[in-house]
Amino acid sequence: MVYRVGLLGLGTVGTGVVQILQRPGHPLLRAVDIGAVGVRSLDKPREVQIPPERLTTDLERIVSDPEIDIVIELLGGLEPARSLILKAIDHGKQVITANKAVIARYGAEIFQAAAQAKVSVLLEAAVAGGIPILQPLQQSLRANHLQAVWGIINGTTNFILSQMTQEGISFEEALAIAQARGYAEADPSADVEGWDAADKIAILASLAFGLPVEREHIPCEGIRDISATDIRYAREWGFTFKLLAIAQSSPRAASSAGPSRLDIRVHPTLLPLTHPLASINGVDNAVLVQGDPLGQVVLSGPGAGRGPTASAVVGDLLTLIAHLQTGAQVPNPLLGFPPLLPFSAGGAEPPQLQVGIPLAELEAEFYVRVLAQDQPGVIGAIGTCFGNHRVSLESITQKECHREQAEIVILTHTVREADCQRAIAEIRQLPQVAGIPGLFRVLR
Ligand SMILES: NC(=O)C1=CN([C@@H]2O[C@H](COP(=O)(O)OP(=O)(O)OC[C@H]3O[C@@H](n4cnc5c(N)ncnc54)[C@H](O)[C@@H]3O)[C@@H](O)[C@H]2O)C=CC1
Ligand SMILES: N[C@@H](CC=O)C(=O)O
Ligand code: NA
Fold first, then answer.
1. 8 A C-beta contact, residue 93 and residue 69
2. What dihedral do alpha carbons 361, 364, 369, 374 form, nearest 10°?
3. Could you give phi then psi for residue 257, rounded to 5 degrees?
4. Which helix (H) or strand (E) is 423 found in, with range?
5. Which residues, 6 or more positions from 261, have their beta carbon under 8 angstroms from its beta carbon?
6. What residues contact 167, with CB distance under 8 A and at least 6 apart?
7. Catalytic residues
8. Is pLDDT at 257 greater than 80 in this prediction?
9. 15-34 pLDDT, tens digit each
10. For ligand 2, is residue 156 a contact (CB within 6 Å)?
């Protein structure tokens, strides 16, 4: 039996998929025929050889072609990717995609359509590139009550932060390298602003906690405000910067009768150098899963790039073919979008989790860098502002002084974010203060 694949998109990942399929390392892949490849331009020079009659700009035709069994969507962006996936499902095709942006927003629609059409939609490549994480969450880890998923799940930003830390190169230089290596999204704002990590944590949380996660409800901050100075000071204090995506159940307050809440967010974070995620560098990603009775598991590896991402896509293809050969359907991973996935094994009730907690209500330690006139009493004035809002300080240090401006760096104890923000607003009003260029959460 031959399985005919229709490939949509022949960019970084699409080319990697063709390269694997043209030199198959697994006998099952010899049953795969690349029947059609949808591209934007027929004349563009390619790194892989595709018979010209199989290249087409008519992507609609591929997803409705009765000869095609499996559609692999590697276009990126929301449209036409979403419509093509839905049309492929409608025509009874199995679908593989790496498109987290589409799944995070339209997962419910897509998985409902797939359930109706009795086809599978697989997306291991969409989260953490080459690291197998969706399958483990769906199967090997299912016996647990999952409590937390913390991830470094954007390769571009982890690469940029690592390069700025280790090589001392600028943000722009590091981003240009990440783009040249094929890590970044077509619009790298999605990486830099944290939107791509938010798409991925929406998918992970939906799967881990078995409930729908509205993408817009995820507070999201990117890495643009992290300067080389902050990286250096953080290092001196034993911390490193990471763009963390967090999803964790947060027990309800004793006074509240409401449901427990799902704390879900993306933001730059200072982690102690001893933290299990602190040593994840370069384009690598890592996902830390905490559950009961499991404890903690960390899966790490290459999170972006041609080879690793294509490896995940072709892994899904193998899973699909193995199932098709026995007539079985691969269980769809994301039925948690509508809350159908049980929270734990054994048919327990789905959790009553309210999704999203405003950042102001959360607690963290904070790193703050203040620029102020180098005058007697300025540290005292800053300390008083923090004290006025019940923000206790672990450390307040004057660092370097440039043209009579001192850099004062503060590390708070664990405080409510709203209190810290009120203190910061008051500090900004001090006549000696010129600005607060650095304000970041510290998690341990
Ligand atoms: N590059 C990476 O490291 C990773 C990428 N992904 C995802 O994989 C997907 C593909 O990413 P890349 O290969 O990096 O992107 P890319 O931009 O290198 O490739 C996309 C290709 O699709 C083509 N395309 C886009 N819209 C089209 C249309 N309407 N008609 C015909 N062709 C069209 C583009 O011309 C381009 O050649 C995206 O969803 C991305 O988020 C996921 C994990 C890692
Ligand atoms: N742009 C993404 C690609 C993989 O998902 C990233 O940098 O992680
Ligand atoms: Na993956």
1. yes
2. 90
3. -95, 0
4. helix 417-428
5. 249, 250, 252, 353, 354, 355, 356, 357
6. 174
7. 200
8. no
9. 999 999 999 989 999 999 99
10. yes
182 Cβ below 6 A of ligand 1: yes
Query: For tokens 């950042």, what's the residue?
Result: 359
Q: Is residue 337 part of a domain?
A: no
Q: Are residues 153 and 293 in the same domain?
A: yes
Query: What is the tens place of the pLDDT at every residue in 51-98?
Result: 999 999 999 999 999 999 999 999 999 999 999 999 999 999 999 999
| Residue 339 is assigned to a structural domain of this protein | no
Same domain flag for 228 and 79 = no
User: In the 8-state DSSP scheme, what is residue 216?
Assistant: G
Domain extent at residue 438:
359-442
β-sheet bridge partners, residue 415: 364
DSSP for 340-363, please give it. -S-SSTTSPPPP-EEE---GGG-E
User: Are 32 and 322 a contacting pair, CB within 8 Å?
Assistant: no
Which residue puts its alpha carbon closest to atom 1 of ligand 2? 184
Evaluate whether residue 332 is within a structural domain.
Answer: no
Here the ipTM equals: 0.99
Mutate to test the pocket of ligand 1, among 309, 311, 313, 314 (most ligand atoms within 8 A of CB): 309
Cβ–Cβ < 8 Å for 416, 363: yes
For 302-345, the DSSP string reads E-SSHHHHHHHHHHHHHHHHHHHHHTPPPPPTTTTTTT-S-SST
Question: Are 332 and 325 within 8 A, CB to CB?
Answer: no
Query: Which burial class, exposed, middle or buried, applies to 194 when counting CB atoms under 10 A from its CB (0-12, 13-18, 19+)?
Result: buried
Q: Whole-angstrom Cα distance, residue 177 to residue 10?
A: 21
Which atom from ligand 2 is nearest to the alpha carbon of 98?
5
pTM for the full model?
Answer: 0.95
Same domain, 233 and 349: yes
Does 351 contact ligand 1 (Cβ within 6 A)? no
